[in-house]
Specification:
Largest sheet: 5 strands, antiparallel
Distance between the termini: 53 Å
Order of helices and strands: HEEEHEEHEHHEEHHEEHEEHHHH
Number of strands: 12
Radius of gyration: 24 Å
Number of helices: 12
Strand content: 15-25%
Structural class: alpha+beta
Shape: globular
């Protein structure tokens, strides 16, 4: 076991080792194997024979202090206070006493926590902030995640399984502070019109040089006549980055904002290299509160993958094997001009980007 620091300082985070359960500290680096017990539980077995059980449950990304207190109360009751959050917002209770395993899972279900997310199914959905807390959002993250988890809950709990694990993600705009660029199926909120420039407010609220510098395509330039800025619309890619710097350039548009669907990405390097997601549906509308078109698109892609993939084959690996032409044929999704990379420096990016090369 790594040595713990002898004293606490205010420099940097506390040493992670002190937060591990005693059995994990004792057997650190000496684990023999792990085994999945159900859709929401697994056991790690150490070389010494010691065991540590994990119970995983879903949680929303945006949570309240009451929700956290509920989790910690369960951890105190069954796990000696030990729990952790995964990178996809799952909550994992670390159980050292097997007799606490079933009572913990029973109480989680009684309190309507959804237990699952382990194995070849759909894990909890990583997402951004959406309309709740993001100034440039083109869609809502929390609402979309709710309807998707309602639709595909059986794949989370382990009632249904897939050829391999599938990761969903939602980003509310193309700045993508979520993990959509490397997820199996994901939603990206998109704006379809350039920002509106409120010239009078630009003078009062914005710094013109930094506003111009915020545009990744150089679409913004000075407008001396208005003591403001102007946009070359054919160069604008509707990312909304300028609005982050200059609040006088709002980009949200309820009538034109919507989402795009990307697929085929993954972070892991097992069997094949990590992959970027690629565009499969250029635009779907924000039909709140259930987003039926988005849910139907996810169902279409997932069903084609479930029926056609080999065991342990991730969605992107399946697409690479059958080919993108076959993917569009199997799913019935239309191939449009938006799938073709016509960016000015596309020649420079073909070998490194997630662009289609049809």
């Amino acid at each position: 076991m790594a040595d713990l620091p002898q004293r606490q300082t205010d420099i940097g985070p506390p040493h992670y080792m002190q937060f591990l359960p005693p059995v994990a500290q004792k057997n650190y680096g000496q684990w023999k194997y792990h085994e999945q017990l159900s859709g929401g539980s697994m056991v790690h077995v150490a070389e010494s024979g010691d065991k540590l059980w994990t119970v995983r449950a879903a949680s929303p990304r945006l949570i309240s202090t009451d929700f956290i207190r509920g989790l910690t109360a369960l951890a105190d009751k069954y796990c000696g206070g030990h729990l952790r959050f995964t990178t996809r917002h799952n909550v994992e209770f670390l159980v050292s006493d097997e007799s606490n395993l079933k009572p913990l899972m029973d109480e989680l279900k009684q309190k309507n926590y959804m237990v699952g997310g382990i194995g070849d199914g759909i894990s909890n959905i990583v997402h951004t902030q959406g309309w709740v807390h993001c100034h440039s959002a083109a869609t809502d993250a929390s609402g979309l995640v709710k309807v998707l988890m309602d639709e595909f809950a059986d794949y989370f709990t382990g009632t249904k399984t897939l050829p391999a694990r599938v990761r969903f993600a939602v980003a509310c705009c193309t700045n993508m502070c979520g993990a959509v660029h490397c997820s199996d199926i994901a939603v990206v909120g998109i704006h379809r019109k350039p920002p509106t420039i409120v010239h009078e407010d630009v003078k009062r609220a914005c710094e013109v040089p930094s506003t111009i510098g915020s545009c990744p395509t150089g679409a913004i330039s000075p407008d001396p006549a208005n003591k403001s800025v102007k946009i070359k619309e054919e160069k604008c890619m509707y990312c909304g980055n300028c609005y982050s710097v200059c609040p006088a350039m709002p980009i949200s548009d309820p009538d034109n904002d919507g989402v795009a669907i990307v697929a085929g990405g993954k972070i892991g390097s097992l069997r094949s290299n990590p992959k970027f997601s690629k565009l499969v549906i250029p635009y779907l509308p924000n039909n709140t509160p259930k987003w039926p078109e988005v849910v139907a698109a996810f169902r279409t892609i997932l069903t084609a993958y479930e029926n056609g993939a080999r065991k342990h084959e991730r969605l992107g690996e399946w697409i690479d094997r059958v080919g993108w032409e076959k993917f569009f044929s199997l799913t019935g999704l239309p191939f449009t001009h938006q799938h073709i990379d016509d960016f000015t420096i596309a020649r420079e990016t073909y070998r490194t980007s997630a662009a289609f090369k049809w």
